[in-house]
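Can't paste images in this forum, so I'm doing it all in text. The chain is below; anyone willing to post the predicted structure tokens underneath?
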Amino acid sequence: MAPADLDALAVEVAAALPSLDEDQRRVGLAVYRLLADGRPATAGTVAAQLGDLVGTVAPVLAALPTATVSDGAVVAFLGLQRAEGRHALCFDDTALATWCAWDTLFLPALVGRAAVARSSCPVTGEEVVVGVDPAAGVTSVTPGDAVLSFLAHPTPFGGDVVDGFCRFIHFFADPDAAEVWRTAAREPGGGAPPELTVLSLADGVALGARTNRLVFGRPG
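Text version of the structure:
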């Protein structure tokens, strides 16, 4: 794998994501923490966590980009969701899903808690299990040579982050498996743009920290 320019890549990804103002950043981080606790992210619970009035939080929550609301509670927001999915992220006894494999590497820092990610290699079918800590980064990985596919130079997602970005981002059992998938995905009819690249998991975490600063104003 060629060294990646993580600073430039973070700027590109942040520019493609929906822009959040300061109130949306605060509310979004509170939503992440509530979801990780297994608690409903309603205007009331978010307000209680932030020490704000419900009337102040409610309109911000209602307009939060990429958020999905069901029965008055946010059930999905910018990479994290309560429903099951291909990529699992577990905070202690709370099992959630993410929109792509990379989400599992940057979300623990935003939540402020260690987590375990589980997904499967699209080529070998082997389960990839990664321990992620907000301070230490990747603390364990099985298999040991697992890597991450990534999409460089993403164009603005226009509200559809999953179709424009997430469907290209997976864990692979090793670099060879990633290259097999990347080559096939870039062939005519494969559906992938030429900007697919492969990162180490450590680079995935480092890229997440840089992107977190740009999107949320903080690495975690």
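Helices lie at 6-16, 22-37, 43-50, 54-62, 103-111, 161-164, 175-186, 201-216. The chain has two domains: 1-18+83-220, 19-77.
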